[in-house]
Amino acid sequence: MNKHGHLAEFLQARRSRLRPEDVGLRTYGERRRVPGLRREELAMLAGISAPYYTRLEQGQSRNASREVLDAVASALRLDDSERAHLHTLAGAPRRRGPGARPRPERLTPATRALLAAVDGTPALVIGRRSDVLAWNRPGHGLFAGHLDPDSPDDPGGAGRPGRRPNMARLVFLGAHTRDLYVDWPAKARAVVGNLRLTAGRHPDDPLLAALIGELTMRSREFATLWADHRVLACDVADYEMRHPLVGTLTVTQQTLQSPQGDGPSLVVATADPGSPSAAALALLAHATAPRDADRPHRAAESHTL
Hints:
This protein is an alpha+beta fold. The chain folds into two domains: 3-90, 434 Repressor (Amino-terminal Domain); 109-301, 2-Layer Sandwich (Beta-Lactamase). Helices cover 45% and strands 12% of the residues. The protein has helices spanning 3-16, 39-46, 50-57, 66-75, 80-90, 109-117, 137-144, 167-173, 175-180, 184-201, 206-218, 220-227, 276-288, 298-301, and strands at 123-126, 132-135, 156-157, 160-161, 236-243, 247-256, 265-270. Strand 3 and strand 4 (160-161) form a beta hairpin. Residues 84-106, 144-165 are annotated as: Disordered.
């Protein structure tokens, strides 16, 4: 599906969630055939013609101005992340050559150095499709200690499936990760919201489409959240975790990415200094420290991803 197909679905989903009374419209008790606002009501709130809004929602208008999109966003009561997502979906689609595949995601030297610099703090590097490209020892221990620490080094290829973990799969299909988060639904919403933003930026990515299709087929919860069309730029979030090694702790997960937003992201987990959670992270760092401190961890130092 291209951007304009995503745009149509997004507008329809958001319009269906607004009731006339939410925006101060009187209905005079008439029965409504569909939930939410009608197209002409939304167009009136946005100050544009109903036929034009209909073309926009059907993906037939590809030159909407910023002012029109902002008016529609205000009428739909979108937040800042949703407004930005609307502008992305309405933008001119970037065309890829026929049959071209997206470039493989790799660690840059700068990101590799940054991961090494935070070696005492749980951290991992995530690609745009939520593949784990690398992690340090505490990051592996906190998020996926049940997996082989060297699994991010194996992306597969030549028809052979790899072992590289994918955080979206772990959240929705992995019992370990589901048990790890006390408020698993909040984590699940964050994962889906971020995937929605990525799908808007990269509508022609076949690997991303395959991941979304797989999760939709294998997880009813993912399918329900995906159909809701909510977007969420979750750069900083607090999560309570039930860790099998160090017990219950609360961490702040921060996602650091390039200003362009198109490269791998560094996810770090911290805790309030002096708190029991900070002590738990210190215990985890000690437990995952190498026996030989001078031996580099393969996952963090890998050059071929």
